[in-house]
Each structure stands twice: as C-alpha cells, then as structure tokens.
Amino acid sequence: MRFHTINPVDNNILNTYSFIEDKNIMDKLFLSQKAYEKWKNISYSSRIGYIMKLSSSMQDLIDIIAYLITQEMGKPITQSRLEVKKCIKLCKYYSSLEETIFFQDISTEYEKSSIRFESIGSILGIMPWNYPIWQTIRYAIPNMLLGNVIVLKPATNTAGCSLLLEKIFIESGFPRGVFQVFLMDIPKIKSVIAHPIIQGVSFTGSHLAGSHIGYLSGKYIKKSVLELGGNDAFVVMRDVDDLKKTAKLATESRLNNTGQTCISAKRFIVDNFIVDDFIDLVIQEMKQYQRGDVHDESTKIGYISRVDLSEKLYQQYKDIISNRGKICLQTTRDENFFSPCLLKMEDKNFSSNQEEIFGPIGIVYTFSNEEEIPSMVNATCYGLGASIWTKDLKKAEFLSKKINTGMVFVNEIVKSDPRFPFGGIKKSGYGRELSVLSLKEFSNCKTIIINK
User: Which end of the chain is less crowded, N or C, counting CB atoms within 10 A of the terminal residue's CB?
Assistant: First the structure.
C-alpha cells in the first residue's frame, strides 16, 4: 500500500512511499533485538561518542533538515532551523551526564545495597508530525544512552523527515538496527506492540489515540509514556510588570509553529481590570504574523499541516462564535492557511476548555477576583502546563501549588528544556520526557543486595 507526503502550502504531492509488509516488520523487529544485544554491552562512553557524532552530523545538515521540515509541515524556515538546533542542544545535554546517574548506593545493614537502572530492550516510539525531528530525538536519545534501541513509527505526512533522520543515524556510525523507521499503517501498530521484542511504548498525540495506545500497552504488559496535548492557561495579573511585553510573549506562545504546539498558550486568563488593553496589544502583535513565503526568513507564521485539520480548526472557530464568543480579531482561512485570530469568551464553562485547539486561535477569559484563578485554570480535562505573569512572586508560588498541571512557569512562557522533566497529568498523559527522569522511564530499576 502506498501513501503520499503533501506540501501544506500548495497541497501538491512531495513524495510517494510504501508501507512495509508484515514479513519486513518481523525482519526489522528481529534486527532490533539483535542490535540491542550488542548495543547494551557497548560502554557508556562509546554511546556518548555516537550521540556526539550525531549532533555534529545534524549541525552540518541543519539547512537540509530544516528545508524538509518546512516542505512537509508548512513551518516557517526559521522555526524549522530552531527545531534542529534544539535537537543538537539536547544531544549535548545528555552527552554531559555522568554514568553515575544510573547507580545509587544505599547505606543499610547489608554488606552492599544498591539500585541500578538498566536498559530493557526495543522501545517503540509513535511520534507526531508537528515537530518531526525534535519529538523523535527527545524520546530516542535518552533511551539510547541508557542502552535501549529505537523502533520509530512516524506520522505519515512527515515520513521524509523520519527517513532522513534514520539516514543521519546510519551515516553517523550507529550500529545497524539501533535506530529504525517503520513506515507502517495504523492497523499494524497493535501487532508490533504485542510482539515480545517491544518492551516499551512512547506515544505523543491526541488523548483519544493515546487512550487506545495506553490500553494496548496495558493489555500486553508494556511500559508506556503518553504525551497527549494540552490546553494551557496564560494567566495575566493586573500587577504584571510590562503588559506590552507580556502580550507579545502571549502571542509568540500561541502562534509558534502556527499554533500547532501542545504547550502553547491556548487560554488567556486575564484580570478584568486590564483585559481591554491586553486584547488591543495582542491584536497588534497578531497582525505582525502575515502570510508569506515559508522559506523567507521574515515569515513568522506557516500553514496548518493538513486540510482535514484546517477544516476541523475552522469548525472549532465557528462553534466558539456560536456559543457567545466575541470576535476581537477575525480569521481568514484559505485551505491550509489560517490567519491568527482572537476571541473573547464570556462563558467560562464553554467546551473549548475541554478541547485542544491546534491552530492560531487565541481565546480570552477574564477574572475579577484572584481566588477564581485556580478553578479557571483547572477547568479542563488537560493538565500539561500553565504560566503566571505577575510582579508578586510569593502570590505566583502560592497559585502554582493550586494549579493542576505537570509544569508551571512564572513570568516565562511554557517551553521544553532538556534539563527539566516534560509531561502532564489528567488527559495530558503520564510519564516524563527530558531531564534525567526520562532516562529511567524505560529502565529496569534493579535492587541488588549483597550480604556477608
């Protein structure tokens, strides 16, 4: 069976690929197992050496990788380059870690007692299209450093990016089978998860798909990490230091990657005293994001990745308006292009709280009493991130303890950083990526007791 990758800018076919056959899936799985038996016994310093070579290769190929991301995803070229640079930064971070993070000695009555974190085998990654290189690198590198090997099922609309990445791994000298791309249709995923060679599943995507992946992982007793999106709040207090700067950052967060980011600021929750000024400032900022050539360095906004997703986004936009959503800045839609827009919602309980809006739609809610903030932020099925903007840091710290998310940033937009755990609660999923914690998600935590 064949499928196409499509350029979101003009909806023209970029490339045609074939899904792998069942026999080839089995062959690749057995290769993965064979590679694991060798890879887990390679020294820690050698694994770091491979990762640093990968980092160097990506540095040399930034323009080629970024060009393909933009072609397949419709992302502005400057943002595609930043995606690759972030991957390089991640490789350098993990390469700086000492092997001692995998060992812990405990003082007890025994001669020796310790905990070791050891690899478990082949980890299946089911990765999305919105950050086709970054999402893969952030799951793959920590696992490979631990001693696991990678089986990647990429999104079909960014298949070319994944195949290019596989080629870079090979050309960087990684042993055959340590990193493999499986171009397989969705119905094949169940049999791969069920296969005894697969020891863990890392999934990033919608909570509906994640629910099914979590079910299959549980059914076949496989460890899993689910990153399922968010509906992040951007809380602006009346004492904020610089409202214009805050509005600019709010806009950047909402419109980065054309709004197709799980941790973007999707709900602006603003003190009623300053909301009109905030709206005016955000509109001014949004108007700077004009349609243009995505390969031009000055273009700040791109395209929705697929026509069906653009259609879904426009339906969400109309639903908000039909439910008393006030248009502050109207959108213009042309197939996959969706211009930035801003809506003000009077109904705090409207269902947009329960949906992830994956596109450049900002929604403003207001509060008149600061005691309302935690309940407004938490009034969603998601729990990924939130940001609070205020001069009063004690107040912000107090509020952060009452907000039910995996991440809270104060006077900073929510962002992923290799040094810190990334993940959420509720329908945003479970488990953590990034930081040293990600190294232990797909590990065997082994207790060793030695007595005289």
Answer: C
Domain boundaries, the chain: 2-228+428-450, 233-417
What pLDDT score was predicted for residue 351? 57
Tell me the per-residue pLDDT of 199-232, one tens digit each, with 9 for 90 and over.
999 999 999 999 999 999 999 999 999 999 999 9
In the residue annotation, 297 being an active-site residue is answered as no
Residue from 91, 262, 328, 341 carrying the catalytic annotation: 262
In this structure, what are the phi and psi dihedrals at residue 269, rounded to the nearest 5 degrees?
-105, 105
CATH fourth-level superfamily of 2-228+428-450: Aldehyde Dehydrogenase; Chain A, domain 1 (3.40.605.10)
d(CA 120, CA 197): 10
pTM: 0.97
The catalytic position among 227, 356, 433, 441 is: 227
As a whole number, the mean pLDDT across the chain is: 97
In the residue annotation, 381 being an active-site residue is answered as no
